[in-house]
Structure formats: structure tokens, C-alpha cells
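Hi all, posting the design record for the shared folder.

TITLE: backbone redesign
STEP: 1 of 1
STRUCTURE INPUT:
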């Protein structure tokens, strides 16, 4: 038989199948390479080695407030220019910060001193120091102009943000940690890791109205809320996981393992994601499939002990606090943009 030197043509169906497989492969590869968070800015701070704690945001003036515990200072960061504007000293044991935009005030929990310091947000002068032992997490409710300060022993203080009068001191079933407020009804959810519970508080009556026990994990510190789906996202350190809980029944719906030592958790309602900053050196990104189903989407490497952060849902930016490490002259703020 005479050889023509030409290979026989592949059937059309085989070519189509190969092209489809190639397309699927390329699409999957592109998706795997696209990280849900892109680091877009690094802002240097000042201070020694050591722990940094929570943050607050003034979005109107593009300012970030940082609890620089290692430096015993309240740090004010200019996000537009990426610079450290000011450090307010003598804040030993600084932990929680809340910014009240309508009152132009900062409320700062200073644990070792045992006060909640109130600063004027324009000139940063001290307005008043309210005594609360081991003051920690602080939240502001713009709807009621009330400030909530978690403090020892097993209490949550309620303050009139305008007059600075202490309205109540709610007794809790355990030492308080992170808490979240609903926007549409008078409800506050608060972690009490010492009693392995989550407390539900009616903010009209300032009373604990329910206790939800944790059975899947312990050391429940950070907390985030999906108000639309009635879901709480509870960051636990033993075992390290996010426990998903129904706000109405207290049922533990499911859980997702995460890296160790989480201290801040946020819910991105637009992208249906949970962000958990973990001291093991990662930001865990969890995808919400629906209200009852979740999966790990990515683990973004950071630095050991970088366990506190703040998420701005309006522009989709996550501000990660990174302590001083071998590649830096001091601590830093790493700014991430959520994608897409």
C-alpha cells in the first residue's frame, strides 16, 4: 500500500471533546489561581515586638484606629496616604475600639488601666475616662447612641454615648468576649468562653434572655453575624473551627475547621464569605453555599500572631494587623481587597 505521509484526521466528535476538556481545565486553573483576597497596600506602624489588638474605621475621613497594645498606644492611620498620623500614648492594655461617627467620638477599652477612655475624634483630646475593670471589646449602636463595653467580672456595661452616663451593667454567665448587635431588632449576641456559651441580650430591657451552649468546640472568642439568614459565625480555638449557629434556636448547624488562634471573624454579605484572621499565620476564607452549608475557599498566608483584623463591607477591604516580624522595622497594616 502506498504511504501518503499524512496522518488520518481525527473524528469531529473527538476534537470537540478535547476542546471541551481543555476549556474546563483552563477555567478550573484560572479559578484556582484567583485568590479571594488581594493584598493591595502595606502601611508601616511604630512599636516593639508584641501583640496588637482590635481596630475601628472612620470611613468618611479614611482613618483606621489601631489598638497597638505592644506600644501601649492608640494609633491613628491615614488610609488615603498610607501613613501613621498619630500615636496616643499611655493606653496600657488597650484592646477594643469603637468609633461613633455621629458623635465624633472614640471609645477605647484599656484593660490594664481599667477604663473606657472617650476621645474627641477631631482633635483626639481625652473627653472622659469611665472606670471599668479589664475593659475589653467595645461596640457602638448608632440607632440608640449607646456604647457597650465588655469588662470584668462577667459584665457588659451600657453607656449613653452622648451624655456618657452609665445606663446599666448587665450580669453575664461568664467572662465576656466578642459580641455583635442586630440592626433591625434589639438583640445582642455575646460569647462567654469560660462557660462555653453564647448569651442573647435584649437591648431594650438590658437583660439576658437566653443562653445557647456550645458542644462542637470550646474557647469561643470572635463572632460574626449574618442577620438576613439568622446565622452566627463563632470562632473557636479548641477545636479550631467556625461554628455556625441559628440565632433563633441556638442550634449548631454545622462547623468548618480553620487554622489555630483566631481572634477576629467577619461576614461579607455581598460575596457570601466569612473571613477569619488566625494567629497561626493565615486568613481563612470560607464560602457560604447557603445558610446551612459552607466550605473552605482559601487560606491566605500572613504572619504568626497576626490574629486581629477589620472588614469594611462598603468597599470590600480587609485590614489585617501584622506584628513586627523579621522583614519589617515595626508592626504593619496589610490591606486586602476582596475579589471579585
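Okay, here is what came back for every position:
SEQUENCE:
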Amino acid at each position: 500500500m502506498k504511504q501518503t505521509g499524512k496522518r488520518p484526521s481525527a473524528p469531529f466528535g473527538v476534537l470537540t471533546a478535547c476542546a471541551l476538556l481543555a476549556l474546563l481545565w483552563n477555567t478550573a486553573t484560572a479559578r484556582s489561581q484567583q485568590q479571594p483576597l488581594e493584598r493591595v497596600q502595606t502601611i508601616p506602624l511604630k512599636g516593639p515586638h508584641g501583640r496588637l489588638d482590635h481596630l475601628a474605621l472612620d470611613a468618611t475621613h479614611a482613618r483606621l484606629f489601631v489598638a497597638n497594645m505592644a506600644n501601649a498606644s492608640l494609633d491613628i492611620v491615614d488610609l488615603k496616604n498610607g501613613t501613621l498620623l498619630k500615636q496616643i500614648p499611655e493606653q496600657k492594655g488597650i484592646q477594643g475600639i469603637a468609633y461613633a461617627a455621629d458623635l465624633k467620638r472614640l471609645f477605647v477599652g484599656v484593660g490594664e488601666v481599667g477604663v473606657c477612655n472617650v476621645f474627641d475624634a477631631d482633635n483626639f483630646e481625652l473627653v472622659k475616662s469611665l472606670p471599668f475593670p479589664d475593659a475589653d471589646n467595645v461596640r457602638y449602636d448608632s440607632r440608640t447612641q449607646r456604647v457597650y463595653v465588655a469588662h470584668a467580672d462577667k459584665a457588659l456595661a451600657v453607656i449613653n454615648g452622648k451624655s456618657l452616663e452609665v445606663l446599666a451593667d448587665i450580669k453575664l454567665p461568664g467572662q465576656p468576649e466578642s459580641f455583635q448587635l442586630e440592626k433591625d431588632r434589639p438583640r445582642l449576641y455575646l460569647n462567654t468562653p469560660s462557660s462555653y456559651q453564647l448569651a442573647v441580650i435584649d437591648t431594650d430591657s438590658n437583660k439576658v434572655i437566653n443562653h445557647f451552649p456550645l458542644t462542637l468546640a470550646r474557647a469561643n472568642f470572635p463572632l460574626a453575624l449574618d442577620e438576613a439568614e439568622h446565622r452566627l459565625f463563632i470562632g473557636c480555638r479548641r477545636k479550631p473551627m467556625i461554628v455556625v449557629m441559628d440565632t433563633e434556636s441556638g442550634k449548631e448547624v454545622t462547623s468548618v475547621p480553620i487554622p489555630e488562634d483566631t481572634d477576629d471573624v467577619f461576614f461579607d454579605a455581598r460575596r457570601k464569605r466569612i473571613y477569619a484572621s488566625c494567629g497561626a499565620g493565615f486568613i481563612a476564607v470560607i464560602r457560604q453555599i447557603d445558610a446551612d452549608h459552607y466550605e473552605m475557599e482559601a487560606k491566605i498566608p500572613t504572619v504568626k500572631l497576626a490574629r486581629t483584623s477589620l472588614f469594611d463591607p462598603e468597599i470590600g477591604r480587609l485590614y489585617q494587623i501584622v506584628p513586627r516580624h523579621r522583614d519589617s522595622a515595626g508592626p504593619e497594616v496589610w490591606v486586602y481587597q476582596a475579589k471579585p
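COMMENT: The first helix runs from residue 12 to 33.
Let me know if anyone wants the other runs.
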